[in-house]
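Worked example 2:
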Amino acid sequence: QVQLVESGGGLVQTGDSLRLSCAASGRTLSTSVMGWFRQAPGKEREFVAAIDWSDDWKYYRDSVKGRFTVSRDNVMNTMYLEMNSLEPEDTAVYYCAAPQTMKYGSRWYERSREYDYWGQGTQVTVSS
């Protein structure tokens, strides 16, 4: 089993920054891809960003490009999401996730159903 634990959320103002962390422990992941998702009240969970630890590719949803940066620390087994220029529309519970095995298909990493392990989430609230 793989355990994922997010931290770093909080209440900030428009334009502020936050850095979320996702610490992975337990069984070694057989895939090097991890992702960030978010869910706002009354809305579906949506893809935010994904990173491949081995090939070093990163993908973002359009609305966060240029503001958010996903990174990882292989030694610490931790993934990060640096969020700058935060907007009220970024308010949500943020989750990190990992698939059990490598998936295939166009932009599979954007689909929450492709991920098998999830953290408990961390709340990010951006006030206007």
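The chain has no helices and eleven strands. The first strand starts at residue 2 and ends at 7.
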